Amino acid sequence: MKPVKVGLLGLGTVGTGVVRIVEGNQEDLSRQVGSPIIIEKIAVKNIEKYRSIEVETAKLTEDPWEVIRDPEIDVIIEVMGGVDQTKEYILEALERGKHIVTANKDLMALHGSEVLAKAQEKQCDIFYEASVAGGIPIIRTLIEGFSSDRITRIMGIVNGTTNFILTKMSQEGASYEEVLKEAQELGYAESDPTSDVEGLDAARKMAILGTLGFRSNVELKDVSVSGISKVTSEDIAFAKKLGYEMKLLGIAERQGDEFTINVQPTMVRKQHPLASVNGVFNAVYVHGEAVGETMFYGAGAGEMPTATSVVADLVAVVKNLKLGVNGLKAIVPYNPKKISNDEDVYFKNFVLLHVDDKAGVLARITQVFAEFDVSLASVVQQPNEVNPDAEIIIVTHLASKASMKKVLEHFETLDVIRRIKSVYRVEG
Amino acid sequence: MKPVKVGLLGLGTVGTGVVRIVEGNQEDLSRQVGSPIIIEKIAVKNIEKYRSIEVETAKLTEDPWEVIRDPEIDVIIEVMGGVDQTKEYILEALERGKHIVTANKDLMALHGSEVLAKAQEKQCDIFYEASVAGGIPIIRTLIEGFSSDRITRIMGIVNGTTNFILTKMSQEGASYEEVLKEAQELGYAESDPTSDVEGLDAARKMAILGTLGFRSNVELKDVSVSGISKVTSEDIAFAKKLGYEMKLLGIAERQGDEFTINVQPTMVRKQHPLASVNGVFNAVYVHGEAVGETMFYGAGAGEMPTATSVVADLVAVVKNLKLGVNGLKAIVPYNPKKISNDEDVYFKNFVLLHVDDKAGVLARITQVFAEFDVSLASVVQQPNEVNPDAEIIIVTHLASKASMKKVLEHFETLDVIRRIKSVYRVEG
User: Fold this and answer.
1) What's the CA gap between A268 and A249, in Å, rounded?
2) Nearest CA of chain A to the CA of B284: how many Å?
3) Strand extents, DSSP E, A126-280
4) Which sites bind NADPH (chains A, B) (predicted)?
5) Which residues of B touch A141 (CB under 8 A)?
6) Mean pLDDT of the B153-180 span
7) H-helix or E-strand containing A61?
């Protein structure tokens, strides 16, 4: 049978894994799709660079356009990263009727609707399983596995770097700075870690999951984000004492026809399945009206896990190619986008305050919560170990995001509060 | 657009859920498939029976053939259960060019290859996501999500009844008999619980998962089975003391081109993701050469979770119908079936012996292990609390199934051993 020819944009970590799988599992793959799959051309930054795999030099080019314009090539796998230039490549490839497999979360979160629309116009497939949670087939699961259900909540540990950092801080009592440095040395964190630690990477992935889960066109700007750079080992120790683990959670939740998506460090009760997801692993917890609680766990990044998802998408494209049905199964998000007001988003909160150690302080503070209708699940006042302040540790019942905001604003004006030390969402 | 008409065989727990979802999510479903989906006819045992949902009496029939022979019906959903008679219905429906969605693990485990061949011959779809692990889309995951990978190991908690029993025994220290009775009262166990507690139900599901994971035609007879009816609360207490939870695990594992599938009560180390899967929940742990460790968790049974999978399959059938590609994506298992010899299957073991409390006994017992080349990770001898015997608790290193069999056979002949109290596989 006529082989299917594939062009690869990028031969970094994931690209290398893709070559390994396509070559190593060639027999298995061709049994499934009915013909050989050949990686015909590969665009790289530098042809001369040393690589851990052998690739025919004749297949390499430093010009991505050469791959995109090759009329022999049916499918483009994009694993080079980047946004604006890469979008241009992908749009041109689609224009030429080529199908796309991409691992590019930034592109899909920022310009997903544009490239998906172009793909539909040209009756091309564009698959992006590897863009979220590496080897976990969560995109397929949301599109196909739960096509019948109404998803009400998606909670994800979708950034391995921050989960590695928080796990180490929790297990070893180490500081954020120490563990970040270790993560950088191990290659788990970039030299500029901003995108990971400030939650931006997780927010992009949550925008993609929200779009699929709620079948509505979620954009990055719809996601509220706060990162982990201010989480201290003291906070984590408090969390553990109360029976929680600290996790950077992306939480997409729907009430009626409105939804909200928030990424923030969250105290997760130890019994919750997400609490024991450790190290660089990822997990996505999905709640559907009919299916109830589910969770999907696996490696969120890395050469081979991510390549598994890329090549599974390639198999899907080639099967569609054989059947002549590429681009015909895409679902355009059909639900209008309505973001919930902060008045309608409820969660529990952990609040740690440093206050003057004198009579009546606790009364004034609890009075503020009462004023804004936030009821409290537990309150502990204790002397601080290192300075003359007292510490007040409060866990609220479910409170609206808006009310909590007002409470915290009010606290800024209270002279008895020396410092709002930490505020975290609490789940489970 | 012309509606797609569906015939339903069975209106028990799952069938009721299917009606609820198809009616309740009609708008969402028709957005995805491009036309309404109508449940046209329903075969039931007794038309007069009280039901928790309203169904037009005109749609009901007590004759399944009436549904199967209706030329208006495109898709048959089989949720009536049973094997021989049901197979006849399904084969006849396929003969008439109708597509099948079934939740019937017994049928698929016993006659899967026959009905799949018939479906291929007639270019019909037959999907069976709901047959394993209820609401968890594990079948899709193995077929599509991991199409690119070589699966080396599948470990499943795929029977909710036994997981409920073992969880209760572990959490409350209750006896097997007490908890079984409670499970029966709650409707989690049948009045004749044999199929669940003796591991047969799990074996059927593992035969299905093994077929998909190893792309080889696994039959029920290829699965070795032992159930939980001999597990005592004492055994579970021992497991916990050593850092394990007792679970009924189905384990399908591959070495080279050979595989083995075993269902047995297993001590799972507490840190393993399967150890904290409790109650009626199911989970399937999958290890692939490229993707590494993954786990999929959710409700293994119940009206709505199982119906979620059934209706997701229905959506897939209808999408294929619109594209005219039904039956064209099926993969016939292409790997020849080679079952590993017991000499080549290695795992750790827990052994609890009651022995004479006198000098030299431990030496004789450890001598037997040495003779058959089984090395020991830990050995503890202690007096039994209620009788004059001593207890010896042994955990082995990895040992071949064949060697362990010989050790245990030899133990039967040793006069110093009063009783081989328990033997369990150990994982993690």
Assistant:
1) 9
2) 10
3) 126-127, 151-157, 223-225, 244-255, 258-269
4) 105
5) 137, 140-141, 145
6) 97
7) strand A60-61
CATH fold for domain B4-132+303-323: Rossmann fold (3.40.50)
User: Which among B140, B149, B311 is the nearest to A308, CB-wise?
Assistant: B149
| Distance from the first to the final alpha carbon of chain A | 54
Domain residue extents for chain A: 4-134+303-323, 138-299, 345-427
CA distance B74 to chain A (A): 18
Give me the pLDDT at residue B99, please.
Answer: 98
CATH of A4-134+303-323, one of 2.60.120.1440, 1.20.1280.260, 3.40.50.720, 3.40.930.10: 3.40.50.720
Check pLDDT > 80 for residue B182.
Answer: yes
pLDDT tens-digit map of B292-343 = 999 999 999 999 999 999 999 999 999 999 999 999 888 789 999 999 999 9
Q: What is the ipTM of this complex?
A: 0.95
Mutation to test the A interface, candidates B13, B20, B144, most A Cβ within 10 Å: B144
Q: Is B16 annotated as a binding residue?
A: yes
pLDDT digits (tens, 9 = 90+) for A186-216: 999 999 999 999 999 999 999 999 999 999 9
**B133 token code pair:** 């692990």
Picking from B133, B316, B307, B109, the residue whose alpha carbon sits closest to that of residue B219 is B109
Place domain B343-427 in its CATH homologous superfamily: ACT domain (3.30.70.260)
pLDDT at B387: 78
Fold of A345-427: Alpha-Beta Plaits (3.30.70)
Closest residue in A to B296 (Cα) is A296
Sign of CA dihedral A306, A311, A316, A321: positive
A240 in catalytic set: no
